[in-house]
Amino acid sequence: EVFKARDKKNPKKFVAMKKVLMDNEKEG
């Protein structure tokens, strides 16, 4: 599953990220 997420370095920029990668980032 892929969704649009805000880039931490560029809040105005939206990037497509996989939900799995985002979940791992939250856990870490």
From TrEMBL:
Entry protein name: Uncharacterized protein
Taxonomic lineage of the native organism: Eukaryota, Metazoa, Ecdysozoa, Arthropoda, Hexapoda
